Amino acid sequence: MTNASIEKPSRVKTIAAWVLSVLLALTFLAAGGSKLAATPYQVQLFGMLGFPGWFMYVTGILEIAGAIALLIPRYAAAGAVIIICVMLGALASVVVHAQTSLIPATVVMLALAVAIGYLRSWSFPFKA
User: Fold this and answer.
1) Span 48-102, pLDDT tens digits
2) What is the Cα–Cα distance from 71 to 93, expressed in whole angstroms?
3) Around 32, how many Cα atoms within 13 Å sit in the side-chain half-sphere?
4) 3-class secondary structure for 52-73?
5) In 3D, which of 72, 78, 63 has the Cα closest to residue 30?
6) Confidence class of residue 128 from pLDDT cuts 50, 70 and 90?
7) 67-86 burial, b if ≥16 CB within 10 A, otherwise e?
8) Total Cβ atoms within 10 A of residue 59
9) Which of 63, 75, 87, 119 could form a disulfide with 32 if both were Cys (CB 3.0 to 4.6 A apart)?
10) The pLDDT of residue 3
């Protein structure tokens, strides 16, 4: 692949990718931080969903790692994939446990992560 065949993203696409990345990163830094801080809400939620306590910390670490990766253009698509995996797991959990009030926010975050991956053209750091 030559440099001439690499299409430069439009200004609008770049701005949209950055705006969505920052918004989602802030959201997941807060969410991951609340899990690592073991806030009562998170402890209760993970217990209600039937997960062991350690899984809350793993999820928090993944959320923070994904959020940080979203802010580094070279790793943004990888961050989007991390967030997508976390949100697919969250969606499955809230559906199985009939936590319908959590479904809309979960779907929105999942959609935003997919949009970021698309806007970043799914170009991973190991791409040739």
Assistant:
1) 999 999 999 999 999 999 999 999 988 998 999 999 999 999 999 999 998 899 9
2) 27
3) 21
4) CHHHHHHHHHHHHHHHHHHCCH
5) 63
6) very low
7) bbbbbeeebbbbbbbbbbeb
8) 20
9) 63
10) 52
